[in-house]
Amino acid sequence: MKKIMIFAALLLTISACQQANKTMEHTNPFLSDYSTPYEIPPFEQITLAEYLPAFEKGMKDQMSEIEVITSNSAPADFKNTIESLELSGNLLTKVSNVFFNLNGSLTNDSMQAIARTLSPLLSKHNDDIALNPVLFERIKTVFDQRNTLNLSKEEDMLLEKTYKRFVRGGANLNMMDQERLRKINEELSILSLHFGENILAETNNYQLVITDSIQLAGLPESSIAAAANAAEKAGMSGKWVFTLHSPSIFPFLLFAEDRTLREQLFKAYISRGNHDDEHDNKKIISRTVALRYERAKILGYETHADFILEQNMAKEPEIVNAFLDKLMKAAVQMATKEAAQLQELLVKNDDSFKLEPWDWWFYSEKLRKEKFDLDEAQLRPYFKLENVRDGVFAVANKLWGLKFTLKTDLPKYHPDVEVYEVSEFDGSHIGILYMDYFPRESKRGGAWMSSFRKESITNGKKITPIITTNYNFTAPQGNEPALLSWDEVETIFHEFGHALHGLLANTTYSSLSGTAVPRDFVELPSQIMENWAPEPEVLALFARHYQTNEIIPQELVQKMVNSGTFNQGFAMTEFLAAAILDMDWHSVTSYEELDVIDFENNSLKKSGIIPEIVVRYRSTYFSHIFSGGYSAGYYSYVWSEVLDADAFQAFKETSLFDQETAFLFRKNILEKGGTEDPMELYKAFRGKEPDQSALLEKRGLK
Fold this sequence. Notes:
Strand order of the largest sheet: 3-4-5-9-6
Oligomer: single chain
Number of domains: 4
Number of helices: 28
Structural class: mainly alpha
């Protein structure tokens, strides 16, 4: 029935779009310059009916621009070929930036139907460009002359990346292989879309309904209030509803004393996409992996991992596997000790059962309280969302003089969203920052940064960025504000680091701007920001009790410092097992579609993960690699952590807000984007290559 309803919605949407294309093209906001301040998308003027006509015109316009390039009788050069290609497709980029951002944060059945319609159209459009022989011949001509062109570093990088993109897109293949590549790309785009839709549906569909208040024992008042509010919205007044959204499930696993319910909720979370129903992801995974391998072979690579890593800092699967294996051995050793400590705690509490994965969160929180006299409930009152936000702004101000001004008169796509103008210390405009804090059924899980417009310089004019950050924090309950866990505090700092990468970009070409860097380098700006969060000097900027405004007591800060490496064996093991699983999936050398659960079990057994810990992402909800851009790249978080730990040492060796060090980081990392080799950029900042010892010390693994 649901599929029929979605299909009906799609037909209505397409019909409306066709009618709009005929009669209302002049009113489509995408088809003219935005008249809003800073040319922000006029969200309130955009309707569903306007997307498809704008996409269609955007694709048509870009193909006309490609035709101008290929029909040019003048010899191919950097300006009339490479730069012209870079500047093509403005309308398509404009509508894509709005549609795909909102499809992640404010979607519905009709919008998802449009996305499914668009997926094969965009795949064909991109392949029509990538496989245009005349266009590639002109690009190759310029590339072959690169050593004689006297290009700037950025121009040379654009030329190199353009040429490699076309080669990796199949430009050198014969016609038969190109045709097969088109079909693979189209199918992969649809599979990726379905995978994400299934996870959203699975997350939204599950409810743990509690009718007896005794079963709420141990839970903080904020979680109980949120569950009561969820029940009220679901028409179950007087009950409590817990869901698989992060703000609901993780406090439950930490604090709920009812072990049976913890097990029930935990198993529901780790079985998403694995129910052999309409939202099952196993066939999508096996087909995706087979197609990715086939594409890699057609393009001349041994595996999909080889294809992906060629463009990353790591370069080869062997390097990544050795890196992960070394860390995993140390992490498992620590996790095994942690498991033994938790089992001892069980015995001490007269609990006779064996430690299971749904117990880890609960008993590790008890152990932390016992060892360090610290629990999350003590910390949350000091982490009011608004204060944490202002704290991260204050850090950016102290480092680079940046200012953040709340704007209530600018367009926004949802009432919960906050909009800030970002400016230099002298007041000159840098860009716009959107912050979207709370979960909703129309929003995917997790946290991420993206852009409604990237920074660039066109015809001598600076195009300023419009950046968005998205979170899934517990919304305010009653008279109580949104109070964050420590993980959520770090998440704000993390995504804000990505935002700075986009906001402070200073490049000519948008395709090289901001986060357009190798996957295992992109997490450096985000993860380094996390290092400031627990510093006592920084905590004093934002950690104030939401009722008394008292700064977090020094003894509580010291407890946080003392417990800094607590439970790191668990944290590293669950992450590294996922990174190894990712590499295993994308190192397959078979066209056959594999049994997903058997494959996963074999990978986890090989990784050495202990039975008391479940991998951070099981395959069926591993969105990073099957619906995001992290295939053969999930390792990049810990790879970048080597960079960020070493980079932060530069501040520790001078001072927390050392201006010279901050300047070097901004000029060589944040501003440069993908205009130069990442290791060269890092060395320009740090003066040397990164040292792994800083990470091992930070994680307590040294």
